[in-house]
Amino acid sequence: MLRSIQAVIFDADGTLVDSEEPGMDVLFELAQAQGVQLTREVAHQQFRGVRMADCIAWIAAQLPHIPPGFEADFMAQVRLHTDIRFRQGLLPLPGALTLLQSLELPFCVATNGPREKVELTLGLTGLRPLFGDRIFCAYEVGHFKPDPGLFLHAAQALGIAPEHCAVVEDSLPGVQAGLAAGMQVFSLHPREGLPADIAERVTFIENLGALPPLLARS
């Protein structure tokens, strides 16, 4: 049974903003350019929701020889090409703007991405003004999903107990973080691909438009 929900914590990439796919594609393309043999499907499974440093470390581990300074150089390439890709056209996820404009509960963003990335993606999609100072980044908090620390920090900033917070996520690390924080998790990630013990503890939603009735019933 759902407990009373008094605040909503949103992931950004792939949850509010359609940035997950192009971001993963940039990683996939740059990894291929380095000679890493993997398919787009495997790349998206490997990198989705994972902090960038860990993605790049995984790519480096696939190389027979790692040039000096590879990870820092590769990180710079990823940031540059991702920025370009986003500016070519980025949209909010269907229903995101309507949901945020109508939501009467306190809400925020908690993302594994750096500040400059979330500011860019929310800005390009017109969602940024709706959040004010309620944007929390793992790089600043010092906790990355699946660690629950980022979500717990967000709940404390909102002044709401974790058990009365809803988390809306699209990745396995995000879902894990929400559950570890003792929050109620609404998953845009389909049941397929989530471990069974995790799937039974979350509420699946097909899109953001399905969220308001569930919040109203809590």
Helix content: 40-55%
Number of helices: 11
Spans of at least 5 consecutive residues with low confidence: none
Total number of strands: 6
Q: What's the mean pLDDT score?
A: 94
Main sheet summary: 6 strands, parallel
User: What's the helix-strand series?
Assistant: EHHHHHEHEHHEHEHEH
What global shape is seen? globular
* Separation, N- and C-terminal Cα atoms: 8 Å
Walk across the major sheet and give the strand order. Answer: 3-2-1-4-5-6
Rg over alpha carbons? 17 Å
Strand content: 5-15%
What structural class do the secondary elements suggest? alpha/beta
Write up what this structure looks like.
It is built from eleven helices and six strands. The chain is of the alpha/beta class and 218 residues long. Helix 6 (115-124) links the parallel strand 2 and strand 3. Helix 1 crosses helix 4 (70-87) and helix 3 (52-61) crosses helix 4 (70-87). It starts with 6 loop residues before the first strand and ends with a helix. The model has no long low-confidence stretch (mean pLDDT 94).
